Amino acid sequence: MAVALVWLRDDLRLDDQPALRAALERGWLPVPVYIHAPDDEGDWAPGAASDAWRRRSLAALAAELERRGSRLLLLHGPTLGTLQALAALTGAEAVLWTRRYEPAIEQRDAKIKRALRQAGLHAESFNGALLFEPWELATRQGDPYRVFTPFWRSARAAWRAPRTWDAPARLPSPDEAGVPHGVPLDDVLPAPRPAWDAGFWDRFVPGEAGARRALAHFVEHALGDYAAARDMAGEPGTSRLSPHLHFGEVSVQRVAAAVLAAGEAVAAADRDRFLAELGWREFAHHVLHHYPHVPGRNLDPRFEAFAWANPSPAKLQAWREGRTGVPIVDAGMRELWHTGWMHNRVRMIVASWLTKHLRLHWEHGARWFWDTLVDADLANNTQGWQWTAGTGADAAPYFRIFNPVAQAAKFDPDGAYIARWVPELAPLPVPARFAPWEHPDLLRRLAPAYPRRPQVDLAAGRQGALDAFAALRSPAL
């Protein structure tokens, strides 16, 4: 049987896996291969938290393949030379993969496809990550969408749910074609020493089976109240599927199908609100494809002249470590450090504090999230930071400045989220947890280790941001 290399990247699954499906349907013996090549990723090589997740996901995928009679071939990069050498060694006729949309990866993959085809191989890529390819949706003028609402309206009108594909119970073994074994997982991605990621796995189970369980749990227990509960920081109201989607452990088509299959058991408002969140993920990838400069530059060019503050290492480090003196901000940053994840509402709050009250460039935050989030996705991370900073596609206006005290009172009304992640504030009565500097006697007696005041006065920080924005809008003299 002729061999096809099924080149896996951020599509670490067998279910609804288009490259694997194509190999089987065309009569090739699929050889699943993962090539670790962080140097190919340009300025955005995966961060530490991503690598910690990827290591476990690869182990889970290898076990799933072995259970079906196949195996995962793990190799080091550089990618093109490794694929060429492996194809020559195995006599492969084809190399199949699912597409990625990061700028450096798109450029690399185009070169790889050309080189493989020039060598006489069948090289083909598939959509395995999005509902629509970025070139399939456009405005009436033929331009990319930069505003979410018309984008999503167009997408919903055009979307026809495809039939998803179930992985077969058995797969042919690469041993049949004399395919060699690769390198051990520990040589590709060693386990963290010390195990700083231990807290991640209390919340998440990487791998395809973990993704299926997370999806089923969400549909059964949280989808029915999603519209109301998704913003509540202390409640399990979100899907927590983002890392599974980023690593391709479940397809977005499978997720959408599961939500729609809930039918009348779930109110339309809850179902539609969650599908719109999938739409924001889609929108972010489309923006990244069409505007590949956005990971390092403002989409709105006006902000190239904005008076960002000079970064104070002490203030930036205090923000990273959850020592800002603003409880909801500190809670979010500590949750991130301990679990590799942060509630989406809190992500906006901590980003607003950094880019508005501290007036630091959003890339400082984007880089920190990139290294510490298990769901660090270049499209979503960039879109989220530029949205909050007011510099990106369909962004909140810069003058929209979250008041972290009001946000905490609204989205953590019982103070449970703050008490969990900033336990030194747990002895304070609930109202004092939101703005402890307003209760100096209580703070001194019950939480002496917590900062006496925020790293910047809330009113002064807000006014500084507004003044900088007003100067940006004023015509030059």
Automatic annotation (TrEMBL):
Entry superkingdom: Bacteria
Positions with a binding annotation for FAD: Y226, T238, S239, R240, L241, S242, F274, D375, A376, D377
Matching Pfam families: DNA_photolyase (PF00875), FAD_binding_7 (PF03441)
Cofactor: (6R)-5,10-methylene-5,6,7,8-tetrahydrofolate; FAD
Textual note on the cofactor: Binds 1 FAD per subunit.
GO MF annotation, one: DNA binding
Membrane-spanning ranges: none
Residues carrying the site annotation Electron transfer via tryptophanyl radical: W308, W362, W385
Keyword Nucleus: no
Similarity comment text for this entry: Belongs to the DNA photolyase class-1 family. Belongs to the DNA photolyase family.
Stated name of the protein: Deoxyribodipyrimidine photolyase
Organism: Pseudoxanthomonas suwonensis
